[in-house]
Amino acid sequence: MKRNRSATPGSKGKSVADGGARASDRGPKRGAGQVIRHGSKGRNAGNPGRATAHSPGETRERPSGPAAVVRPTQAKVPASTSVRLVTVPEDRDGQRIDNFLLGQLKGVPRSLIYRLLRTGQVRVDGKRAKAELKLSAGQNVRIPPVKEAVAGAPLPAPERLLSSLESSVLFEDEQILVLNKPSGLASHGGSGLS
């Protein structure tokens, strides 16, 4: 049985009993279903990622499987496929667990190591470990599967970059090299700069 409700004072809408439509009966809100992309500013941002409307009878197939997920390109890094149990050697006695893990997991960022510790994935003798825990020789450390950097030769710089750097040398001596560094070129590594 429906209740007869009247609109609240000052509202412009009608009650359900008076023939007013519910929000779900009015159709989609304006802008519903639009794709919002990272980095866009404001509504539609020049319409590069604006969703297209489809006719009522048209069906859309969505891709499925791993190809459906679009990920940014990354360097291929092998993942450790299983949990490792490492016994703390004598020379690591008294070392903090975070520094011990930095030595065990080559090329893994510190932030990931701290996340593994915070979430309890790293265990020492079966118990959760905090970053400041000092290890004793003979303790067993459980290290979860983590992607590690590949040991090998560094990638060569692009030929175009090398030729532009060679042309920007202002002075070269046995002890000093002076460059007219282009803007946007990192002068030291870190934070994903190249």
CATH architecture of the domain at 84-143: Roll
Number of helices: 3
Q: Provide the CATH top-level class of the domain at 84-143.
A: Alpha Beta
Main sheet: which strands, in order across?
A: 1-4-2-3
Q: Which assembly state applies to the chains in this document?
A: single chain
H/E order of the elements? EHHEEEHEE
Say which CATH homologous superfamily of the domain at 84-143 is assigned: RNA-binding S4 domain
The name CATH uses for the topology of the domain at 84-143 is Structural Genomics Hypothetical 15.5 Kd Protein In mrcA-pckA Intergenic Region, Chain A
Q: Could you give the count of β-strands? A: 6
Q: Key terms for this structure?
A:
3 helices; four-stranded antiparallel β-sheet; Structural Genomics Hypothetical 15.5 Kd Protein In mrcA-pckA Intergenic Region, Chain A; 194 residues; single chain; two-stranded antiparallel ribbon; elongated; little secondary structure
Folded structure, characterized:
With 194 residues, the chain is low in regular secondary structure. The chain has a domain at 84-143: RNA-binding S4 domain (Structural Genomics Hypothetical 15.5 Kd Protein In mrcA-pckA Intergenic Region, Chain A). The protein is 13% helix and 10% strand. It is built from 3 helices and 6 strands. The protein starts with 83 loop residues before the first strand and ends in a 15-residue tail after the last strand. The model is unreliable at 62-77 (pLDDT under 50).
